[in-house]
Amino acid sequence: MNNNITLLADPSHNGIQLPNQNNRHQRPHAHPDTRHAIELVQAQEVIPEPTEQPSRPPGLILHCGANVVSREEVYETQTPPNTSTWFPMPHHHLIEEVENQLWHGGFHIRSRTFALSHEGARLFCLIEVYKSGYEHEDYTWVIGVRNSHDQSLSAGMVAGNRVCICDNLCFSGLHKIQRKHTRYAQRDLRPLIQGTIGKLENNLSSLDKRIAHYKEKSVTDLRAHDIILRGVDEGAITNSQIPEVLGQWRKPKHKVFEERTVFSLWNAFTDVTSKNNLNTQVTRGEHLQRLFDKKYPLALAS
């Protein structure tokens, strides 16, 4: 691989750096059935190169054996051959498609974190995004992307948020894409992602309204204790996590969460669930959002 990439800053691409067309990445050899999918994104692909060694961000909890890696390492991952019933998708194809659709949807990419496990067979990626006029001081929007080359996971993405002061992540199931690795998965992925990104702004706007409502709504200890117990019933936490959530509610790590609000209670949950791996975070986050929507439905009011 040629590591001497000349990057061009193009204001028309919202600050995203594009590779010099005269010095493009040398891709790993693609199998015949995947070349077309790769060619679809080459004309507008976004491939910024990290300038420092990747490190695990505080809010990123990975599967056992997973490692945070550079973008180059993701591109070097070989895609296994197709079978008669299984057509694996290159990791970089999914990432590029998501990034390009985010750009076309008017989103800016603040940061990316890539992780691989099982000898490169499974990809997990976090993309922190924002949109002009929708930036927040205390939390950010996050897109989660996953893929596999061992038939363990369908290619997909999910939206959520990260609270800046504590790096708590919560994927609340606002919108997900699941697509099995079948013959037409790569053909269908572009319109699926395009449709999801088109809805993403409205979904994230609903998230903003929830958080604003949570900050305004007070909670008594009695009410908080009841919701924490009901979190087990809803599948948002496990029995063994009750003491941790209670501890974060009663004595939060950060002073800002000492206010007795729904937002503080929410962060007591996410401080604990952020210790789970990404797949579990997505599931727990969906259940947590369902619980809070039941208890505080006005959070969805316009």
In short:
The protein is of the alpha+beta class and 302 residues long.
Please render the helix and strand layout as text:
Blueprint: E1 7-9, E2 17-19, H1 32-42, E3 67-69, H2 71-76, H3 91-104, E4 108-117, E5 122-130, E6 139-148, E7 155-163, E8 168-170, E9 176-179, H4 185-216, H5 221-234, H6 242-250, H7 262-273, H8 278-295
Helix pairs in contact: 3-4, 4-7, 5-6, 5-8, 6-7, 7-8
Taking all residues together, what is the mean pLDDT?
Answer: 75
Largest sheet: 7 strands, antiparallel
Cα shape: globular
Tally of separate helices: 8
How many domains? 2
- Extended strand count: 9
Strand content: 15-25%
Point out poorly predicted stretches. Answer: 1-59
- How much helix, percentage-wise, in residues? 25-40%
Termini gap = 51 Å
Explained architecture:
Helix 3 packs across helix 4 (185-216), helix 4 packs across helix 7 (262-273) and helix 6 crosses helix 7 (262-273). This protein folds into 2 domains: 7-204, no CATH class; 217-300, no CATH class. It is α+β, with helices and mostly antiparallel strands and 302 residues long. The protein is globular and about 55 Å long. The model is unreliable at 1-59 (pLDDT under 50). The strands form 2 sheets. Strands 3, 4, 5, 6, 7, 8 and 9 form a 7-stranded antiparallel β-sheet that branches. A two-stranded antiparallel ribbon has the order 1-2. A hairpin with a 6-residue loop joins strand 6 (139-148) and strand 7. The protein has 8 helices and 9 strands.
